[in-house]
Structure prediction request, 626 residues.
Amino acid sequence: MTDDMKSEIRNPKPETRNPNRYEQRRREDGKKRMKAEIGKAESRNPKARAFHSASSYFCFLLSTFLLSSSRLRVFAVSLIELRPLKCLFGFRASDFLRPSVFGLRISSAASGASLVPIAVIAALVGCSVGPNYHRPPVLGTNALPAAFSGAGATNTGVWKPAQPSAHLPRGSWWEIFGDPDLNRFEALATTNNQQLAAAYANFQQARALVNIAQAGYWPQLSTAPSYLRERTSANQSRLSGGSSTFNSFIMPLDASWELDLWGRVRRQVESTGARMTASADDLESSKLAIQAEVASDYFNLRSLDAQDKVLQETVVAYRRSLELTQNRRKGGIATDLDVSQAETQLASAEAQIPAVQLQRAKFLHALAVLCGQPAPTFDISVTKSTLAVLAAIIGLPLPATFDVNVPEGAVAAGERAIDVGSRIPVAVPSELLEHRPDIAAAERLMAAANADVGVACAAFYPSVTINGLAGFQSVSASTLFNWESRFWSVGPTLSLPLFTGGRNRAQLAAARAAYDVTVANYRQTVLSAFQDVEDQLAAQRLLAQQFEKESAALKSSRRTLDISMTKYKGGVITYLEVAIAQSSSLAHEQTVIQLSAQRLSAAVSLIKALGAGWAADADQVAAQKE
Prediction:
């Protein structure tokens, strides 16, 4: 046995006596050497030490932001690099966080179990508490109807529905009536109506609220420079050596960032985004309602123009009848009773003219407001051509003195306009839910209320906010920006609701109740939409039947009036029979005119109830041009 072997037996090597203890001591020696090297480098260059601290915190913020994004989470786990200085955030060296000259790195040789903390953090940062939105059944336990009951009265072959989407523009649907004046007023209302301007401003406000909510994703930076001149008290402590007066210049930079661990910010963005879409749908709904009101008021105004013209012609005819009766009374053929009846007929017809003109003035002023124009300067001329077309459509006779040529094809175009309701396509109820903007707005409000429930749920969970403060402070302005005047502090804050007096539970209950309200409002909106469509389909069908019967009655009343006048001139009957025939003919003429306006208004209401948004077929466009 050699002397070396004997020496090894008497004094074994450290790894032979206790290998684990030797390995631990070796690692500790390596850490001490590394700390010594870092300390020497920092002592030689204080700016490097400050930069090292700032870069460490920046890497931590960057990694947290990457983890907060669901798309970048995997990339963040593989890229994350923490650089704490002297265990600034509580991290320590281990097999997972391996010391290096740059700080602490994730060791690639760490076991799979060591990745569990990062996986847990990534999962927490990416989660969102609260229910995910799923649109509830439209009618609850009731099934959607397969079709509308009055849909068979329409001609879907002439018109075809465009792609159903509530947020898309409705299109120039009023052009199907072929009225240039109506087209002009619709353009004025679309650009100048103040209700639409308010609705657009509401949409802009909703879009700004989305940007406000999205600001919660990012850190918040602020600064508050200040200058103070202060004096300390000489008696503030027993060890005080006396008072002192000095200046204090501060140039701070505050930073704070709340980590969206539980999805509160994401739920707020989801809520405001849904409300912004609902506001856009409300804008389209308001636009459609105003355009429909313009068309309805315009048709009522034109109907009153026709009624006024009929009354004017009737007064002329009644005056001739009165002159005839007075002449017959002078000749001893008629009696004073006949003259009195003729005067009564004339006065009654003249009394109706101011009433019709008053109604026309009201519709004219309402149309001016809808078009964004001042009522005193707004007027619609009544041309002979327009009255001739209206008279030709409803079959009114034109006097010989009414010298006007009806434009070629104008009567046919007017007849198509009155009968336009039968050419409006009626979609199935399921497509109506996508066409109507008010239904789409109610559905988006449901989604917003559902996101609000998630915001209320997030209040039960702790919030983590990373706060930072850095800047310069000095007693002299000349040394304020010196490197020795710097100060900084950084660290996280954990806020956990321990006792709130039931406030969080009450807020959650209120959010759920608000969601139930939006569900009920959504279903009520759908039911009201179905009612509107059914009402207007019934109006189309029944008003067409009534118009047909009234037109036949008008022809009969005119023939009766002609016969009675002939017999009265021949002395066969008294003027009483003539007065009855005149009253009947005038009443039927006014009824036919009113029914024409009602049919046009019903067609407008049907377009509004269906949400508009159609494209004309090529055959229909060619037919209108012809």
